[in-house]
Amino acid sequence: MKTSACIAIVDDEAAQRELLSTALRSAGYATQLCANGQEALESAGRSNLMLLDVRMPGMSGMEVLARVKEAHPALPVILLTAFIDVRDAVAAIKAGALDYLEKPVDIDELVAAVDDALGQTGNPVPGGSALKVPAYIIAESGAMKSVLEQAARVADSNVTVLVLGESGVGKEVVARFVHDSSKRRAAPMTCVDCGALPENLVESELFGHEKGAYTGADSQRKGQFETANGGTIFLDEIGELPLQVQPKFLRVLETGCFRRIGGGREFCTDVRLVAATNRDLGEEVRQGRFREDLFYRLNVFPLKIPPLRERPDDILPLADFILKDRKFRLAPATVRLLRMYDWPGNVRELRNAMERAAILANGALILPSDLPPQLRTPSSPPRSGSVLVGDMDEIQRRAILEALAKTNGNKTQAAALLSISRRNLIYKLRDYGM
Questions:
Q1: Which CATH number fits domain 392-431: 1.10.10, 3.10.620, 1.10.357, 2.30.230?
Q2: Residue whose C-alpha is closest to residue 350's, from 364, 366, 363, 362
Q3: What CA–CA distance (Å, rounded) separates 29 from 391?
Q4: 163 and which of 171, 235, 382, 420 could share a cystine (Cβ 3.0–4.6 Å)?
Q5: CATH numeric code, 308-376
Q6: Of the candidates 304, 301, 284, the residue with the CA atom closest to the CA atom of residue 292
Q7: Which CATH superfamily is domain 6-126 in?
Q8: Domain 142-304: CATH superfamily, name plus number
Q9: pLDDT by position in tens, the chain (length 434)
Q10: 427 DSSP β-pair partners
């Protein structure tokens, strides 16, 4: 460990305690886990800093803060809450809190806040070692490296990971990276595409059925939660999960137990869930198509993969990776077209374009004429072109992307380049959906 500092983590949710502990231990800190206010008071004297949830049953975070500051006035306390309120924030700072962070916690922001409080320099990835990217992942851009660093931090916990992003950005690849970086890597990773399953078969696919459970159930069948025991289950397009199946799915997440369709026996499974969606689940909740309690249970550790148009440094390496086994080269004019195009279909569209070009190419050189028509006559302006002077949001967004690229995704260094605070940069990233 880089430091002997010990962080007390106080939260009534076990998953949150484990997530924060994994991140801080990866950054080199020791941790103490406290499930309630009383345990927090007992640990305060043995801690160098306390992370304190505001809303807990029994003794609230604000009550704990007051009592901790009375007994240990020099102990730094950082409050965590899913319900940001300006009045609460002001009251917390007046009561002696050092900082006030919003859930779901941005891990980089959390580690930076702890480092700042204790005068430490954080490590970017677990154990302080360089991020090891497997051969099946291409990540040259700072934005994508930042995603992988967060994935590596959470991998060894059992916390549910929700991978977000547009269709075709590579959500399953990131899910595979989480599994391969975890302690479950020797066990299988089971993949289920919720969007590809007929609605009446989803429950059987996930939980299995007994013989005779319904018409056509001629034999007993184990579901994916049962066969994935000990490993990872990846549920793609989780936003497509039928509403009537969601209560049973929520129970599996909370208890690890389920029943096959038509059966009375309860089975328990030990799986790590990674889910993915290109939908806005918050909006799905507001429209009544997704359960709110399930959304919060899934949204413990969101990983947002930026679209390919926001990580242009990945375009050519990805194209080369797709073509490498066929030993093709890209003509300079082809390179320019690839970089100019906005790639609305993301990596999937790039793969299709390169495979098409490989078929049409005469020889080893891929020319512009080998590319799909929409790439040869792009409707969007070149990526390197200037933006409208009046479009300040776009100017700021591009400046942030450039700063993150120059610093390999390091938000603290990027904020310094932009001459803004790290907290301000975090807020801007959220505002722009980045």
A1: 1.10.10
A2: 366
A3: 43
A4: 171
A5: 1.10.8.60
A6: 284
A7: Response regulator (3.40.50.2300)
A8: P-loop containing nucleotide triphosphate hydrolases (3.40.50.300)
A9: 445 688 999 999 888 888 898 888 888 888 999 999 999 999 988 888 999 998 888 898 889 998 998 888 888 899 887 765 555 666 667 677 887 788 888 888 888 888 878 876 444 444 444 678 898 999 988 889 889 988 998 998 888 999 999 999 999 999 999 999 999 999 999 999 998 888 778 888 899 888 877 777 788 888 899 999 999 999 999 999 999 999 999 999 989 998 888 888 889 999 999 999 999 999 999 999 999 999 999 998 999 999 999 999 999 999 999 998 777 888 888 988 998 899 999 999 999 999 999 999 888 889 998 999 988 875 544 444 433 333 455 666 777 887 787 777 777 777 777 767 676 677 677 666 66
A10: none
109: its two tokens? 């922001």
Residues in the chain: 434
